[in-house]
Specification:
Helix content: 40-55%
CATH topology: Undecaprenyl pyrophosphate synthetase
Shape: globular
Distance between the termini: 29 Å
Number of strands: 6
Structural class: alpha/beta
Largest sheet: 6 strands, parallel
Order of helices and strands: HEHHHEHEHEHHEEHH
CATH class: Alpha Beta
Strand order of the largest sheet: 3-4-2-1-5-6
Number of helices: 10
CATH architecture: 3-Layer(aba) Sandwich
Number of domains: 1
Radius of gyration: 19 Å
Length: about 250
């Protein structure tokens, strides 16, 4: 029996978040420059998205570019942005074919004009798709997103539209860039690193974490299935006892 056949379709994560790590090391292992790894990571992206759609997973968020990544060498950043433009343009038909809707979070105004234009066009074209929602985190910082939410709350309190004693989790949630998406149930990070690197800090509060030594360019559907099977072994108690959650 294949890994996919072992998956319980009644116990799937509704939202999978992915930190795609290891492109540079993958390229270095092959004696190539870092951008070579980014170029070969596209297959991993495609396979992961397709696998989620085939299983019926509603949301997948992929950490494509953090605010800290702007500090990388100019050549690498420029090459990454150009690659992003080409990939979005090329994959729009595939998203439409698979009924996948594209969304994006992060400081998108920082993206180069050409990149931002391609992104917004793809978001518009796919907006009515109803299968899986693919969310790209681009120029994204979870800390900054929380800071911006706090600023909005402070502004609303200052204007009198919100009282201090009305501030709760829902008020914070509603002001985050992820407000229209459910929180992730499963977070996957590749390349053997065991940290979340300023990714969805608020939203991952009760997510299950899965770490794999596989470098991102080598990640395929079978690796996703392994992560989901591990997720299905976990007991998600959300602060309750085992006895309380058992039917």
């Amino acid at each position: 029996m294949s890994l996919k056949e072992n998956i319980d379709l009644n116990n799937l994560p509704h939202h999978v978040a992915v930190i795609m790590d290891g492109n540079g090391r993958w390229a270095k292992n092959k004696g190539k420059i870092r951008i070579f790894g980014h170029q070969h990571a596209i297959v991993a992206v495609r396979e992961t998205i397709e696998a989620c759609a085939e299983l019926g997973i509603g949301y997948i968020t992929m950490y494509a570019f953090s605010t800290e990544n702007w500090n990388r060498p100019v050549f690498e950043v420029s090459a990454l942005m150009e690659l992003l433009v080409k990939t979005i343009r090329k994959e729009t038909k595939t998203l439409m074919k698979n009924n996948i809707r594209l969304q994006a979070i992060g400081n998108l105004t920082q993206l180069p004009e050409k990149c931002g234009k391609e992104l917004q066009e793809c978001i518009e074209i796919t907006k009515n798709n109803t299968s899986t929602t693919l969310i790209l985190a681009l120029s994204y910082s979870a800390k900054l997103d929380i800071v911006n939410a706090v600023r909005k709350i402070a502004s609303d309190v200052n204007s009198g539209s919100l009282k201090v004693d009305e501030i709760n989790e829902n008020e914070v949630n509603s002001r985050l860039s992820t407000a229209s998406f459910p929180p992730p149930d499963l977070m996957i990070r590749t390349s053997g690193e065991h940290r979340i690197s300023n990714f969805l800090l608020w939203e991952l509060a009760y997510a299950e974490f899965y770490f794999t030594d596989t470098l991102w360019p080598d990640f395929r559907k079978e690796h996703l299935y392994e992560a989901i099977l591990e997720y299905q072994k976990r007991e998600r108690r959300f602060g309750k006892t085992s006895e309380q959650i058992k039917p």
